[in-house]
Design brief:
The complex is a heterodimer of chains A (about 290) and B (about 250). With about 290 residues, chain A is mainly α. Chain A has one domain: Orthogonal Bundle (ABC transporter involved in vitamin B12 uptake, BtuC). In chain A, about 80% of the residues lie in helices and about 0% in strands. Chain B has about 250 residues and is of the alpha/beta class. Chain B has one domain: P-loop containing nucleotide triphosphate hydrolases (Rossmann fold), CATH 3.40.50.300. Chain B has eight helices and eleven strands. A six-stranded mixed sheet of chain B has the order 5-6-7-3-8-9, with helices on both faces. Chain B has a three-stranded antiparallel sheet with strand order 2-1-4, covered by helices on one side. A two-stranded antiparallel ribbon of chain B has the order 10-11. The termini of chain B are far apart. Classes of the chains: A mainly alpha (about 290), B alpha/beta (about 250).
Chain lengths: ~290, ~250
């Protein structure tokens, strides 16, 4: 209780903490919603890949002085195209192509960033986030990305739903399924930029898939799944920022840990899919309750 | 004047990674028919309908739907997938799946309207699945699920239907409901292609048959196609035929 009052007082007085909180909430929503489509399309690994692949774009954007946005989108989409090209034109399977391309992009990013000696770009901050240094400008970027991503998902909801559920029918009625795939990768690159300062590149994938997976265990409808997933993302961010402030530990890490714990609880106790209920059903104990 | 063929295929060849799946297929189909596509495993039955719908690239040949190119026929075609092509854990309800059938008729940004909800309800009623509308798709039996996908195809209000093994592993009631609906569709002048595995019912279910084994063995009225020599030609040694003078029963391996 004492801790909570202390935190709330700090939240009232420190601008940086307010910014961190707002950024966390926004990222929780954006990643939660986007993540549902990633896991339903079976693309968790792809999500991890694209978020890592954003690194060289961000570094080059910094070196040449243009927006992180553009750099990230370009390197994310090039990597996605490269993965698609390799798996379609050789006998190499998707997951192998993903492994080759994203590590290559990530390695390029690390080499570039370490070549920039004596600057204020910190590898550590890009990789693991530095939520307590979120500026007003960063918040705006996150906000704009959020608006773009959420309105695209609202606008193309039908296309995303059908091409994820039944890609053959989607193609048969003339939906451009490949274009939809690459468009999603583009949005994914944007989401990574938005999450850069809160959780960092390495842990973005957790914010994408863990809340989505939690929601997946709790509902049987996509609209509900999107809402639950966003809610889990927000709760993880808020609690994560809180614990990281109180115990003075890394924010990205604590946000992701909270999300993982929420998933663990759901995994054990979800009313339909949970381990406990499955066990009770198997033992036929439910009948007597 | 050109005859009004629903499907007209000339010299179609398709290959997967260098192996030929379909060789030099030509046939044309007039409207108002219920057509079964039969042939042994790996004969290219699914490949044929996917090629007609433009889902896979062809090596050679020309496909015309409604006397026009495939791209202009999207709104007139409905497709019922093979049951194991579907992710049963996907968070969609029965009514959500049937609503997907309305998508071709909605503008790309548009949401379903009252009329679309009514169509969904009517189509679910036709296949006897209205009371299951709020169930998740994985909670149904194989036959019920197949009826839901047929309802989705009905909601598309298409003219040309493709069904990929709709009768595989389903209950008798569902099978009867589905074949009745397909016959009614035919009476409404629609054309229906059905990939079919079970030879015992092929002749009674369909007006015409396409007998396939990479090449087109025979296409014609069911009784013309369904004879011992043609079946043996297509199935090579993988068919057991029990026959007396006038009747015979064919069982494929």
């Amino acid at each position: 209780m004492e801790n909570i009052t202390f935190f709330l007082n700090a939240l009232r007085s420190y601008q940086y903490l307010q910014n961190a909180m707002i950024a966390g909430v926004l990222v929780g929503i954006i990643c939660g919603v986007m993540g549902c489509f990633i896991i339903l399309r079976g693309m968790a690994l792809m999500g991890d890949a694209i978020s890592h692949a954003v690194l060289p774009g961000v570094v080059i954007a910094y070196m040449l002085g243009f927006s992180f946005f553009i750099g990230a989108v370009i390197s994310g989409v090039i990597t996605a195209l490269g993965i698609g090209y390799i798996s379609q034109n050789t006998k190499i399977k998707d997951d192998t192509a993903i492994g080759i391309m994203f590590t290559a992009a990530f390695a390029l990013g690390i080499v570039l960033i370490t070549s920039l000696r004596g600057t204020d770009v910190h590898l550590w901050h890009i990789l693991f986030g530095n939520v307590l240094a979120v500026s007003r400008q960063d918040l705006w970027i996150t906000f704009i990305i959020g608006a773009i991503v959420l309105s695209c998902i609202a606008l193309f909801y039908k296309q995303f739903l059908l091409s994820s559920f039944d890609p053959i029918m989607a193609q048969a009625i003339g939906m451009p399924t490949k274009l939809i795939h690459y468009f999603l990768m583009l949005l994914l690159s944007l989401v990574t930029v938005a999450a850069l300062s809160t959780v960092g590149i390495v842990l973005v994938v957790a914010m994408l898939i863990t809340p989505g997976a939690t929601a997946f265990l709790l509902t049987e409808r996509l609209p509900t799944m999107l809402i639950i997933s966003a809610a889990v993302g927000v709760v993880s961010s808020v609690l994560g920022v809180y614990y990281s402030f109180i115990y003075d530990v890394a924010t990205g890490g604590s946000i992701v840990l909270v999300a993982s714990i929420l998933f663990g609880i759901t995994f054990l106790f979800a009313p339909k899919q949970g381990l406990l209920m499955n066990w009770l059903r198997k033992k036929k104990i439910l009948k007597y309750l | 004047m050109e005859t009004n063929h629903v499907v007209k295929i000339e010299n179609l060849s398709v290959s997967y990674h260098g192996t030929e799946a379909l060789q030099n297929i030509s046939f044309s189909v007039l409207p108002k028919q219920l057509i079964g596509i039969i042939g042994p495993n790996g004969a290219g039955k699914s490949t044929l309908i996917k090629a007609i719908m433009g889902l896979i690239d062809k090596d050679e040949g020309d496909i015309k739907l409604f006397n026009d190119s495939m791209e202009k026929a999207y709104k007139k075609i409905a497709y019922v997938p093979q049951h194991n092509d579907i992710d049963l854990d996907f968070p969609v309800l029965v009514e959500d799946v049937v609503m997907m059938g309305r998508y071709p008729h909605l503008p790309w940004w548009g949401r379903p309207r009252t009329k679309d909800y009514q169509t969904v309800e009517a189509c679910l009623k036709k296949v006897g699945m209205l009371s299951f509308r709020k169930k998740q798709i994985g909670a149904l039996s194989g036959g019920q699920r197949q009826r839901v996908f047929l309802a989705r195809a009905l909601a598309q209000e298409a003219h040309l239907f493709f069904l990929d093994e709709p009768f595989a592993a389903i209950d008798v009631t569902s099978e009867k409901i589905i074949i009745d609906i397909l016959r009614r569709l035919k009476e409404e002048s629609k054309t229906i292609f059905v990939v079919h595995h079970d030879l015992s019912k092929a002749e009674t279910y369909f007006d015409s048959l396409i007998l396939l084994n990479k090449k087109l063995v025979k296409y014609g009225k069911s009784h013309e196609v369904f004879n011992i020599e043609k079946l043996q030609e297509a199935y090579e040694d993988n068919v057991a035929i029990l026959s007396d003078k006038n009747k015979f029963v064919a069982v494929s391996g």
